[in-house]
């Protein structure tokens, strides 16, 4: 008897059989610049940004502060970025152009003020990045406000929403805030919208954690507070605080993610882990690099009942600050990098360990953890079978899922300038964390349309290695996000309903219902069969037009 399973009903039931191949760290290549920010810009390339400093990779007679990292050859090619991208943000528009947002005043005469800059990286067709570069134009590509440490998020109309930041010169807390929201392309004639939420969450509201909900509203977490922002009416609705005084935005960087969304309801849940329970009023000189970070995870379901229930607390396996959460194509969440004690930044807290010298943090978290969202409360976190690295990834490091399905890890520089004498020295080595599926025969996906309209069924051909059971087939549509300061802005996983043909040679998939469930723009489709994940296929979700784009697809059933 043939069984046509409605497969996405059980998105998290993954085979738990231990693979002899296991997870592995593999070091390969050096970036030549500090990978302070990273974003995957094509199936073969990651775009890296560093602050203006004395990086060894050179271009046009000065150090490079941008580079394209080739994921196939493990070689970095310098890019001539002229304005300072120090602690900037970024993301893709609905037409596939990547935008780098904000930065700082440059400390070199070779560079320019990056605080109001918008930098474009147009879709890059060449696999090695030839001819692809960062476009800067201080006259025409400009924010309305100076923004250092802002966040950004692609929203339902394909624009980027740009949130918060500071003007300059704050070395730890946000003492010079820009408590407003603006958009690119501009809305409201370019006039920023003031945010009472950002005002209330001072002085620890930098890099607010912001998430696009499936109804088009935005959930935000800053300091120990949360709220829902309605872009269309410019209204803020305060939600419960994170319990137990735990603060999760810079300089107390916890990490946060929107958990995978599944049909038919796409119920949004947000998970926030780590950070610090420091009060936020202690002068920085009285904090130490040995203060234990928070080991709290807090999770909330963003429905009326879920909000009434509030945040549900769980415990990490160790305290963590500046870690990052990566959505995996099977719906699990990888928690990686960061430290177990101290704070974000460098050179500001007292009692910095003698060997660490400038780092505000210490005791790196060398072992990743896996979080299984639909396991029972109390048994979701595990590092069983996880390897440990010996490369510290502290302040100014970045990490991303790659289109091949492994994890790219780079950067770390809790120092002023490029330093090779401290224990937590400037780090140029790239490491990959390879999941078990990287070393076994994997399923493959072919003939996926390059453009995916919403609510659109399509049939792809598949090759599924013999030996994989097809009771559990998952198809994930993913935005791989922009990595900076423990946060992957715009990172997203939406499971798509899929029916595998009985002969295992084709699969019929239905794209997400509309542009609010998946904000239109570039994405990757991954197929996971029996816990083994394919390489991701690059697609454009929506009509690929320049924002703001119209609503597309069908409304969700209520
Ligand atoms: C590093 O990457 C290059 C290019 O992909 C490859 O040829 C080489 O074998 C890799 N080295 C290691 C140690 O994995
Ligand atoms: C959040 O922090 C504020 C001070 O910044 C404090 O008044 C409030 O009690 C905290 N909330 C919780 C739930 O701890
Ligand atoms: C703050 O966090 C530390 C480290 O996890 C813990 O030992 C301490 O009890 C917490 N303090 C409060 C008031 O919750
Ligand atoms: C830093 O120092 C180590 C040895 O102390 C050396 O192997 C490494 O190449 C140096 N790195 C740089 C970027 O100079
Ligand atoms: C996408 O839109 C932006 C903003 O209007 C524009 O600058 C950029 O050139 C567009 N990219 C493409 C590929 O059309």
UniProtKB/TrEMBL annotation:
UniProt keywords, alphabetically: Signal
InterPro entries named among the record's database cross-references: Gal_Oxase/kelch_b-propeller, Gal_Oxidase_central_sf, Glyoxal_oxidase_N, GO-like_E_set, Ig-like_fold, Ig_E-set
Signal peptide: 1-16
Residue stretches spanning the membrane: none
Residue ranges constituting the Glyoxal oxidase N-terminal domain according to the UniProt record: 66-437
Domain Galactose oxidase-like Early set residue range list: 442-541
Name under which the protein is recorded: Copper radical oxidase
Record keyword Signal present: yes
SUPFAM superfamilies: E set domains (SSF81296), Galactose oxidase, central domain (SSF50965)
Top-level taxon of the source organism: Eukaryota
Family annotation (Pfam families): Glyoxal_oxid_N (PF07250), GO-like_E_set (PF09118)
Keyword Amino-acid biosynthesis: no
